[in-house]
Amino acid sequence: MLKRMACLKFDLGRSEADNRGLVAFKENWGAGSRPLDYYRLPDRQPLHLHSGWRSRVAKGIFSVMPDTLFAATGKLLYRHIG
To answer: Can you tell me the distance from the alpha carbon of 46 to that of 36, in angstroms, rounded to the nearest whole number?
Structure first.
């Protein structure tokens, strides 16, 4: 389809530089590579998400909750929290 549309380039996506197998695979298809720089903001979460007794209690309860109950609770709370 892309050939019929006269596309001249196709992006094969990003690859970690140390993943030589994937890089070699893409190069065998004729891909070229160039470095990609990332700029990230500080990885900080708002303080209210990590502090307080409610958060500690919730972490304690969820950490020992059976998987089936945990999944059901997640489905119930997701629409209110997420």
So the answer is: 29
- Please list, residue by residue across 48-68, b when 16 or more beta carbons sit within 10 angstroms of its beta carbon and e when fewer do: eeeeeeeeeeeeeeeeeeeee
Query: Which structure tokens are listed for 23?
Result: 């890089």
How confident is the model over 11-24, as pLDDT tens digits?
899 999 899 999 99
pLDDT tens for 25-69 read 999 998 988 888 888 887 766 655 556 788 788 888 989 999 999
Q: How far apart are CA 60 and CA 72, in angstroms?
A: 17
